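Q: Can I see a sequence and its folded structure?
A: Here is a first one.
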Amino acid sequence: MLLTREEMTFPFGDAKLDPNRDRELLEWMFNQFLYGEVTGIQVGHWLYHAPDLEAAKFLARQSLEEMQHVDNFLRIMTMLGCQPKPAHPAVRFLATGMMGGSWAEHVALEMAQGEGFVLQAFYAVIDTLDHKPTIDILRRAVKQEERHVEFGEQQTAKAIEGRAWLRRRLLGLSLVSMWGVRRIANYMKKRLPADHVVLKHLPAFLEHANQCAALRLRRIGVLDRPLEEVGGGKRALLVAEAYGGKLLGGLVALITLPFRLLPWWKKKRVTDTYLRDPHITGYQLPTPEMDRATAQPQE
């Protein structure tokens, strides 16, 4: 990866999340992770658009890993006594609403940046949660997430080579994703106790996550200077240009909007129905025998 674990780590000090005291918070947090892993179904779309066989093989493996992560979070939530519930709208926007319209947008926004945010959140939970079984699961999962981020970085660098217009578009769209992270931060600041030993660090942690996202954009080559040197007016123009490039698709979406609003017309995907899925509603912790039967090679 272009950023190290040390660069992406936020210094929480000795602050810890307690599985009993903080169950409500952990339930909210792991439901956001659960939704993010369910969006792994979107990998199937990009498998069809892979530029070569190596990329296709990577995505085929990734789709399986994302579905394994769904079970990982169901296991964690069951151990902690948490219930599956809907994800926050801002999380749904970042994970599904920001789904790319091209291969370059996918690898930049969903893999390098989006999974980069998720990876930092995994690191934060590993560093703060006082629950070894959960930490053991997440330590294995981060190895896969790191590969996903690295793939996104490499593919983005290939895509933007010699294409200044694409660098601008990806930067504009990335600014929107950073705005989404700030929306989540504002929600949590209003709804969660500010004097909590861990939560009091939340605003600084999310600002650090956005700083890491900007640094990743520089190292990929999407951004040619520190983001602080890009003024508000320039940022607004970049966002406008990015979405202006999507204008045609937006017009098509507008024309078809009345039909898409009809519930019998809109196709329901797993990201819409997963909370009613028997695999979610009837999930039980695997027995040791089941674990051995389904064990994956350890990395």
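Q: Show me another, different protein.
A: A second, unrelated one:
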Amino acid sequence: MAQDDKLKRKQQLLTECLRLQTQNVEQLRAAMLEAQQSANDNDDDTEEKLFNSYREEMQNKRDLFARQLDQALDDMALLHKVTALAESKDTSFGAVVETSAGQKLFISISLGQVKLNGDTFFALSPSAPLFKAMAGKKKGEPYEFRGQTASITDVY
């Protein structure tokens, strides 16, 4: 594959990851607002507060979604730091890595499986154990993960 095609593919992959992460952010924001609304709807001033535990549960859910939303927004900011138009020389943040084990990885954030033009990539965080096993490796270099040896077949 020509270098221009690789960079175009990397840009498409980044665009798809941004789309997926935007979707995650929107879903978390909606869930947080829904939990807050449920808590507000059950906020009454009667002496007998039968719904206190329900309201507290909804507020706890809201807080959980708020923390997840903060993390998702941080991840979105990280994605925006990826330079898709620059070629990566080694397995580092922003690189697309292909391995002899048949893996296609996008070192960015932990998004899991990302489908693109019939190919399946895995968006992988730099804190993932697999990335740590191959960090800094260049095309042709071997790495070991969980007792298996493989090599980097391409990096861009």
